[in-house]
Amino acid sequence: MYSKDGEKYYICDAHIALWDARPENQRNVHGKQFIDCFYDYHRNLSPESELWTYEEYLYQGGDRLMKDLFTDGYVDHAIFQPAYLGEFYERGFGQEEEAAALAQAHPDKLTYNHHFDPRNGEAGLDALRAAAEKYDLKGVKLYTAEWHGDSRGYKLSDPETYRYFEVCRELGIRNIHVHKGPTIRPLDRDAFDVADVDHAATDFTDLNFVVEHVGLPRLEDFCWIATQEPNVYGGLAVAMPFIHTRPRYFAQIIGELLYWIGEDRIFFSSDYALWTPKWLVESFVDFQIPEDMTEYAPLTTAQKKKILGLNAAKVYGLDVPAELQLPDADETTTGPRGADDVAERAQDTNALAGV
C-alpha cells in the first residue's frame, strides 16, 4: 500500500517476470541479444539511482523479487506474465516453476499466469489443460513474435489460436495478456502488430484482452481498436518509465488512453525486472499533465488510484479494502460502447408500442 498526502493507493503490478538469462541458460546468440536489448531499455530509461549491473540483471531470483516488489516497492499484489522463448533459452526465459512456487507460497501477494503457443497443436492444448489444473490459471501471456522452428510469429486471428481461446474459455482462463508493440532483438516488429487483437476481441467477447505496452509505437491503432472493443484493456508496461526520460511523451500516452478508453481499462505495470515498481509508483502519483497540453484534462487522484491497482484488482477478483473501492466512471464519448443497450431499449420501446 502506498500513501501520500493523506491518500491511500492499492497497488497491483499487473506485469512482472522472474527470468533466467544467465549464459548457462542461453541456447544461442539470440538469447544474449534478447537480454542485452532488455538491459538497454533498462539502462536508457531508468533514473541513475535505479540502475542494476548487467550481472544482477541476468537473474534476480525469488528473494530479490519479493524484496523489490513487496518490501521496497509498495506493491500489494503482482501478476506473473512469463515469456517462454524456448528457441533462445535452454530452460525457457521465464522461470515458470520458480514463479509458480512463489505464487503458491504467497497467494495473497502473487498470481501466476502461464503461456501457450498455438503452433504446438494438440500437445500444446494438453499442456495448457494440465497447467490450468496445476496452477488454477486465471490468465495467460502470449508472445506473438516468438520464434518456433522456421516460424517467426503467429496471429491471434489464426484458426489454431482460436482453438486455444476456445479451450481457455472451457477452462475458465478469462484474461489474455498479449505483448503488442515494442520489438525486442531479434524478434520482428510486425509480428507484434496490434491489428489481430481486433479480430479476437470481437469473436471472444467473454475473454479480456490486455494489450501489454499499449501497442507502442502503434498507440493510435491500439486506441481505435480498444475504444470499440469493451473487452480490450491497456497495460502500461514499458510506457511507464517514459515518465522519467520523456514526461511529455508519457503525458501524451496517458492522455490519449484516458480520452479513448477511459480510466477503468488501464493497468499499471512495472514490467519487473525491466524496472522496479518503487520509483514508478512514486513518480506516477506525483505526475500531472503539463498545463500547456490543453487537449488533455488534468489527471485526478481517483484516476491514479484506478490505474495503479483498482482496475486490475477488479478483473482478477482481488480483495481490496472496501474504503479504497471506487465506482466505475461513465463511458467515454468515443466509440460505440453502449450502442447495444440503446438498441435493446429501442426494441423494448417498440414492443411496448406494439410496433
TrEMBL record:
GO terms for molecular function: hydrolase activity. This is Amidohydrolase-related domain-containing protein. InterPro entries: Amidohydro-rel (IPR006680), Metal_Hydrolase (IPR032466). Residues 12-318 form the Amidohydrolase-related domain. It comes from the Bacteria. It comes from Terracoccus luteus. SUPFAM superfamilies: Metallo-dependent hydrolases (SSF51556). Pfam families: Amidohydro_2.
